[in-house]
Amino acid sequence: MSTEFRLDGKTALVTGARSGIGQAIAAGFARAGADLVLLGRTGDLDQTAELVRREGREVETVTLDLSQPEAIPDAISPLLQRRRIDVLVNNAGVIRRGPAEEIGYAGWREVMAVNLDAAFLLAQACGVAMVRRGAGKIITVGSLLSFQGGLNVAAYAASKHAVVGMTRALANEWAAGGVQVNAIAPGYIVTANTRALREDEERSEAIRARIPAGRWGEAEDIVGAAVFLAAPASGYVNGHTLVVDGGWMGR
Length: 251
Prior knowledge:
- This protein is an alpha/beta fold.
- Helix content is 42%, strand content 15%.
- The protein has one domain (3-192, 219-243): 3-Layer(aba) Sandwich (Rossmann fold).
- It has helices at residues 20-31, 46-54, 72-82, 105-133, 154-174, 195-199, 201-210, 223-230, and strands spanning 11-15, 35-40, 59-63, 87-90, 136-141, 179-186, 241-244.
- α4 packs parallel to α5.
Protein backbone atom coordinates (compact mmCIF):
# COMPACT_ATOMS: atom_id res chain seq x y z
CA MET A 1 0.00 0.00 0.00
CA SER A 2 1.25 3.48 -0.86
CA THR A 3 2.41 5.49 2.15
CA GLU A 4 -0.18 8.09 1.14
CA PHE A 5 -2.80 5.66 2.40
CA ARG A 6 -0.95 4.44 5.48
CA LEU A 7 -1.66 5.39 9.10
CA ASP A 8 1.57 4.18 10.67
CA GLY A 9 2.42 5.99 13.89
CA LYS A 10 -1.11 7.39 14.21
CA THR A 11 -3.71 6.82 16.90
CA ALA A 12 -7.39 6.92 15.96
CA LEU A 13 -10.37 7.30 18.26
CA VAL A 14 -13.47 5.60 16.84
CA THR A 15 -16.87 5.96 18.50
CA GLY A 16 -19.63 3.40 18.16
CA ALA A 17 -16.91 0.81 17.58
CA ARG A 18 -18.71 -2.26 18.93
CA SER A 19 -20.14 -3.39 15.60
CA GLY A 20 -21.16 -2.36 12.10
CA ILE A 21 -19.46 0.56 10.40
CA GLY A 22 -17.49 1.58 13.50
CA GLN A 23 -16.04 -1.89 13.93
CA ALA A 24 -15.16 -2.14 10.24
CA ILE A 25 -13.43 1.26 10.26
CA ALA A 26 -11.44 0.39 13.39
CA ALA A 27 -10.23 -2.88 11.86
CA GLY A 28 -9.45 -1.12 8.58
CA PHE A 29 -7.42 1.54 10.35
CA ALA A 30 -5.46 -1.19 12.16
CA ARG A 31 -4.67 -2.84 8.81
CA ALA A 32 -3.42 0.56 7.63
CA GLY A 33 -1.05 0.76 10.62
CA ALA A 34 -2.94 2.79 13.23
CA ASP A 35 -3.33 2.13 16.93
CA LEU A 36 -6.92 2.43 18.17
CA VAL A 37 -8.93 3.87 21.00
CA LEU A 38 -12.40 2.32 20.83
CA LEU A 39 -15.32 4.12 22.43
CA GLY A 40 -18.65 2.45 23.11
CA ARG A 41 -21.69 2.93 25.30
CA THR A 42 -21.85 -0.57 26.78
CA GLY A 43 -18.16 -1.36 26.98
CA ASP A 44 -18.70 -4.55 24.95
CA LEU A 45 -15.74 -3.86 22.68
CA ASP A 46 -13.78 -7.09 23.05
CA GLN A 47 -14.51 -8.40 19.56
CA THR A 48 -13.39 -5.19 17.87
CA ALA A 49 -10.33 -4.96 20.11
CA GLU A 50 -9.34 -8.47 19.08
CA LEU A 51 -9.60 -7.53 15.40
CA VAL A 52 -7.19 -4.67 16.06
CA ARG A 53 -4.74 -6.86 17.99
CA ARG A 54 -4.69 -9.41 15.17
CA GLU A 55 -3.13 -6.68 13.02
CA GLY A 56 -0.40 -6.20 15.61
CA ARG A 57 -1.69 -2.81 16.73
CA GLU A 58 -2.24 -1.42 20.21
CA VAL A 59 -5.80 -0.89 21.38
CA GLU A 60 -7.53 0.76 24.32
CA THR A 61 -11.24 0.76 25.12
CA VAL A 62 -13.33 3.53 26.68
CA THR A 63 -16.90 3.21 27.94
CA LEU A 64 -18.90 6.41 27.59
CA ASP A 65 -22.62 7.04 27.15
CA LEU A 66 -22.84 9.65 24.41
CA SER A 67 -26.53 10.22 25.10
CA GLN A 68 -25.30 12.27 28.07
CA PRO A 69 -23.10 14.72 26.11
CA GLU A 70 -22.66 17.13 29.01
CA ALA A 71 -20.37 14.51 30.59
CA ILE A 72 -18.07 14.25 27.55
CA PRO A 73 -15.55 17.06 28.24
CA ASP A 74 -14.67 15.83 31.72
CA ALA A 75 -14.78 12.16 30.69
CA ILE A 76 -12.55 12.54 27.63
CA SER A 77 -10.03 14.97 29.14
CA PRO A 78 -7.92 12.32 30.95
CA LEU A 79 -7.58 10.34 27.72
CA LEU A 80 -6.43 13.39 25.76
CA GLN A 81 -3.93 14.32 28.45
CA ARG A 82 -2.11 11.00 28.15
CA ARG A 83 -2.68 10.08 24.49
CA ARG A 84 -2.29 11.96 21.23
CA ILE A 85 -5.37 11.44 19.06
CA ASP A 86 -4.42 11.96 15.42
CA VAL A 87 -7.74 10.88 13.93
CA LEU A 88 -11.25 11.16 15.38
CA VAL A 89 -14.08 9.19 13.79
CA ASN A 90 -17.50 10.28 15.05
CA ASN A 91 -19.41 7.16 14.04
CA ALA A 92 -21.79 6.55 16.96
CA GLY A 93 -25.41 7.20 16.08
CA VAL A 94 -28.97 6.30 16.99
CA ILE A 95 -32.19 6.33 14.99
CA ARG A 96 -35.78 6.41 16.22
CA ARG A 97 -38.43 5.61 13.63
CA GLY A 98 -41.99 6.92 13.76
CA PRO A 99 -44.31 9.55 12.31
CA ALA A 100 -43.29 13.13 13.06
CA GLU A 101 -46.55 13.85 14.86
CA GLU A 102 -45.75 11.10 17.36
CA ILE A 103 -42.18 12.05 18.19
CA GLY A 104 -41.74 12.94 21.86
CA TYR A 105 -39.27 15.59 22.85
CA ALA A 106 -37.22 13.09 24.83
CA GLY A 107 -36.79 10.91 21.75
CA TRP A 108 -35.89 13.92 19.61
CA ARG A 109 -33.29 15.06 22.13
CA GLU A 110 -31.77 11.58 22.44
CA VAL A 111 -31.09 11.44 18.70
CA MET A 112 -29.67 14.96 18.67
CA ALA A 113 -27.55 14.29 21.75
CA VAL A 114 -25.78 11.27 20.27
CA ASN A 115 -25.68 12.16 16.58
CA LEU A 116 -24.87 15.86 16.83
CA ASP A 117 -24.07 17.15 20.31
CA ALA A 118 -21.64 14.35 21.18
CA ALA A 119 -20.00 14.58 17.77
CA PHE A 120 -19.40 18.30 18.22
CA LEU A 121 -18.08 18.00 21.77
CA LEU A 122 -15.66 15.23 20.79
CA ALA A 123 -14.53 17.19 17.73
CA GLN A 124 -14.05 20.26 19.90
CA ALA A 125 -12.05 18.37 22.54
CA CYS A 126 -9.82 16.59 20.03
CA GLY A 127 -9.66 19.58 17.70
CA VAL A 128 -8.12 21.89 20.29
CA ALA A 129 -5.07 19.63 20.55
CA MET A 130 -4.96 19.02 16.79
CA VAL A 131 -4.94 22.73 16.00
CA ARG A 132 -2.24 23.28 18.58
CA ARG A 133 -0.10 20.58 16.91
CA GLY A 134 -0.98 21.80 13.43
CA ALA A 135 -2.21 18.39 12.30
CA GLY A 136 -5.21 16.11 12.67
CA LYS A 137 -8.16 14.49 10.97
CA ILE A 138 -11.79 14.54 12.02
CA ILE A 139 -14.32 12.36 10.21
CA THR A 140 -18.01 12.31 11.10
CA VAL A 141 -20.36 9.69 9.72
CA GLY A 142 -23.41 11.25 8.13
CA SER A 143 -26.04 9.54 5.99
CA LEU A 144 -28.01 9.80 2.77
CA LEU A 145 -30.41 11.57 5.12
CA SER A 146 -27.83 14.34 5.31
CA PHE A 147 -29.34 15.28 1.93
CA GLN A 148 -32.84 13.75 1.92
CA GLY A 149 -35.78 13.89 4.30
CA GLY A 150 -36.61 10.20 4.46
CA LEU A 151 -39.81 8.83 5.97
CA ASN A 152 -40.61 8.63 9.68
CA VAL A 153 -37.09 9.68 10.72
CA ALA A 154 -37.39 13.43 11.28
CA ALA A 155 -34.93 13.65 14.18
CA TYR A 156 -32.37 11.46 12.45
CA ALA A 157 -32.58 13.43 9.19
CA ALA A 158 -32.28 16.72 11.04
CA SER A 159 -29.24 15.50 12.97
CA LYS A 160 -27.50 14.19 9.86
CA HIS A 161 -28.15 17.40 7.93
CA ALA A 162 -26.60 19.25 10.87
CA VAL A 163 -23.54 16.99 10.81
CA VAL A 164 -22.74 18.20 7.29
CA GLY A 165 -23.09 21.84 8.35
CA MET A 166 -20.90 21.23 11.38
CA THR A 167 -18.27 19.58 9.19
CA ARG A 168 -18.12 22.57 6.87
CA ALA A 169 -18.02 25.07 9.72
CA LEU A 170 -15.18 23.32 11.55
CA ALA A 171 -13.22 22.92 8.31
CA ASN A 172 -13.56 26.64 7.69
CA GLU A 173 -12.05 27.37 11.09
CA TRP A 174 -9.38 24.67 11.31
CA ALA A 175 -8.18 23.85 7.79
CA ALA A 176 -5.57 26.63 7.82
CA GLY A 177 -4.23 25.08 11.01
CA GLY A 178 -3.52 21.76 9.32
CA VAL A 179 -6.67 19.96 10.47
CA GLN A 180 -8.90 18.29 7.91
CA VAL A 181 -12.57 17.97 8.90
CA ASN A 182 -14.71 15.86 6.59
CA ALA A 183 -17.67 13.50 6.63
CA ILE A 184 -18.77 10.22 5.07
CA ALA A 185 -22.37 9.65 4.00
CA PRO A 186 -22.98 5.90 3.78
CA GLY A 187 -25.83 4.60 1.68
CA TYR A 188 -28.07 1.73 2.71
CA ILE A 189 -25.70 -0.48 4.69
CA VAL A 190 -26.40 -3.78 6.44
CA THR A 191 -26.21 -2.66 10.09
CA ALA A 192 -28.40 -2.72 13.18
CA ASN A 193 -29.77 0.72 12.27
CA THR A 194 -31.25 -0.63 9.03
CA ARG A 195 -32.61 -3.91 10.42
CA ALA A 196 -36.21 -2.68 10.42
CA LEU A 197 -35.96 -1.76 6.74
CA ARG A 198 -34.33 -5.04 5.78
CA GLU A 199 -36.94 -7.06 7.65
CA ASP A 200 -39.65 -5.37 5.57
CA GLU A 201 -39.29 -7.44 2.39
CA GLU A 202 -41.15 -5.02 0.16
CA ARG A 203 -39.24 -1.97 1.41
CA SER A 204 -35.90 -3.78 1.31
CA GLU A 205 -36.41 -4.84 -2.29
CA ALA A 206 -37.51 -1.34 -3.32
CA ILE A 207 -34.32 0.08 -1.83
CA ARG A 208 -32.12 -2.52 -3.51
CA ALA A 209 -33.83 -1.93 -6.85
CA ARG A 210 -32.95 1.80 -6.75
CA ILE A 211 -29.27 1.22 -6.01
CA PRO A 212 -27.32 1.09 -9.30
CA ALA A 213 -24.83 -1.34 -7.73
CA GLY A 214 -27.76 -3.72 -7.27
CA ARG A 215 -27.12 -4.57 -3.62
CA TRP A 216 -27.20 -3.24 -0.10
CA GLY A 217 -23.82 -2.06 1.11
CA GLU A 218 -21.71 -3.81 3.73
CA ALA A 219 -19.84 -2.08 6.55
CA GLU A 220 -16.58 -2.99 4.84
CA ASP A 221 -17.61 -0.83 1.86
CA ILE A 222 -17.07 2.28 4.00
CA VAL A 223 -13.53 1.44 5.09
CA GLY A 224 -11.68 2.67 2.00
CA ALA A 225 -13.31 6.08 2.20
CA ALA A 226 -12.49 6.33 5.91
CA VAL A 227 -8.85 5.37 5.41
CA PHE A 228 -8.56 7.92 2.59
CA LEU A 229 -9.94 10.73 4.75
CA ALA A 230 -7.70 9.71 7.67
CA ALA A 231 -4.53 9.33 5.62
CA PRO A 232 -2.06 11.82 4.07
CA ALA A 233 -3.74 11.28 0.68
CA SER A 234 -6.61 13.58 1.73
CA GLY A 235 -4.38 16.41 2.95
CA TYR A 236 -6.12 18.99 0.72
CA VAL A 237 -9.67 17.72 1.29
CA ASN A 238 -11.60 19.97 3.68
CA GLY A 239 -15.27 20.34 4.56
CA HIS A 240 -16.27 17.58 2.17
CA THR A 241 -18.95 14.91 2.59
CA LEU A 242 -17.96 11.77 0.69
CA VAL A 243 -21.01 9.76 -0.37
CA VAL A 244 -20.53 5.98 -0.45
CA ASP A 245 -23.88 4.65 -1.60
CA GLY A 246 -23.55 2.33 -4.59
CA GLY A 247 -24.88 5.12 -6.78
CA TRP A 248 -28.18 5.84 -4.93
CA MET A 249 -27.79 9.62 -5.00
CA GLY A 250 -27.06 9.61 -8.72
CA ARG A 251 -30.30 7.90 -9.68
